Amino acid sequence: MSSNPTRPPETTVAGDSEERIKRFLATASHDLQSPLRHIAMYAELLLDDLEETLDGEQLQSLRMIMEKAQTAQRLTKALMSLAAGTPQVTPEEVDLQALAENVWGELTDETAVGAATLESDGGLPSIRTDPALLGLVLRHLLTNALTYRGEAPPHVAIAAERERTDWFIRISDNGTGIDPAYRERIFEPFWKLPKAGAVPGAGLGLTTAREFLAALGGDISLERSDESGSRFIIRLPIA
Questions:
Q1: Among 34-43, 164-173, 186-195, which range has the highest average pLDDT?
Q2: What is the C-alpha separation between 134 and 158, in angstroms, rounded?
Q3: Sign, Cα dihedral of 195, 191, 167, 22
């Protein structure tokens, strides 16, 4: 018998997966920083040089390019800090309604999914959290709702309620649901829910969403899923 102790297989697998995630996030985020910085810089230069000659729509488009590049820079920096084990959180007052609508608008433009609708009955509150990190969490969940859709046009409902020291944000969709056999795996790194014709990806959406929420002092879970769709619940502490 060997005198060298060995870790249990499951511990080894979990540790290896965590290291792979950190390497992936660190490498991807580092490589994106330079092009994003240049996009934001050149957009700002163009605004300074051409502001007097452009019409309103052109100015708005150029400002949008600069703002999106700066937002992406903040996200990649957050990813790098997460990979380093020291996530940087910058809390501020966030209009959850505006944030959700902005993310939804971007995704429906990118995916060109027709007749997709977003509902927030009674509107959503303002909460104090990091807008970049929460925006990325919403992006992952809404992307899944648009990707794993059924025959009916995608419909997503978002509701938020305060319970003692926490906010609970529920995101429901009318998609195909998640097979009970897979419900324990959806938060595993590099694992994707099987779907015919799905676009290949890293399989890190829900994993990074959970990690970002942990950095914010919260968490995420699958509250229910059946043939009528799925509902995820996000918990965030009240600052």
A1: 164-173
A2: 14
A3: negative
Task: Report the SS3 class of residue 36.
Answer: helix
Residue 44: pLDDT band by 50, 70, 90 thresholds?
Answer: confident
pLDDT at 104 over 90: yes
Rounded to the nearest angstrom, the gap between the alpha carbon of residue 98 and the centroid of all alpha carbons in its chain is 15
Which residue's entry shows tokens 């996009």? 39
pLDDT at residue number 147? 87
Look at residue 3 in the predicted model and tell me its pLDDT.
45
**Which two structure tokens, joined as six digits, stand for 19?**
């290291």
C-alpha dihedral sign at 200, 220, 143, 134? negative
Give the CA dihedral 220, 183, 188, 155, nearest 10 degrees: -60
Among residues 149, 139, 199, 201, which one has the least CA distance to residue 177? Answer: 149
Q: Write the CA distances from 83 to 104, 120, 143, 220, 225, integer angstroms.
A: 27, 33, 23, 19, 31
Query: H or E element: which one contains 96?
Result: helix 96-111
pTM: 0.69
- Reference 208, options 88, 79, 100; nearest CA is 79
235, pLDDT greater than 90 = yes
Residue 229 exposed, middle or buried by CB count within 10 Å (0-12, 13-18, 19+): buried
